[in-house]
Amino acid sequence: MAQKLFHxxxxxxxxxxxxxxxxxxxxxxxxxxxLDIKYRITDxxxxxxxxxxxxxxxxxxxxxxxxxxxGAGLTVVDxxxxxxxxxxxxxxxxxxxxxxxxxxxxxxxxxxxxxxxxANETGVGLSTAFKNWRTSLRDxxxxxxxTQLPTAPSEVIGLEGTLxxxxxxxxxxxxxxxxxxxxxxxxxx
Length: 189
What we know:
seven-stranded antiparallel β-sheet
């Protein structure tokens, strides 16, 4: 049976101390025998931390002496707390992804405003496809996150292509433990 651990980086100059308040350099993986890092996450303050496992005392009592709360920076957790930490992390990450969606939505709306201005100046109506596309963009924050932006109509062909790669890269740069996005394709040759 493995113990589930929530912990931070160890301080390089004193590996019995944990770095719980900064993401600066000078930190190392804690020197715990059999430590198996499962997830690198961040806490509510954005500080790097880990969910790890290591053998419990019963399987090897002389080597593993981790008590329930060892101190600031290292805690033995049960499955409920483990799952809660993952859920809290994923919720924060999802919020960051929603910011990316809104940012790219706003870029596309801003970059297509010229079509609306031109239609107003010339008295030519906007196509239904264009109106539907802009509505789809405005709806993005209220729908599930997708790796694809709505397809642009002929009035702005190529506009979304300039941002599609950036948009996808931004979404995938915000990792989650339980990720709803499809696995990212490996880079090409």
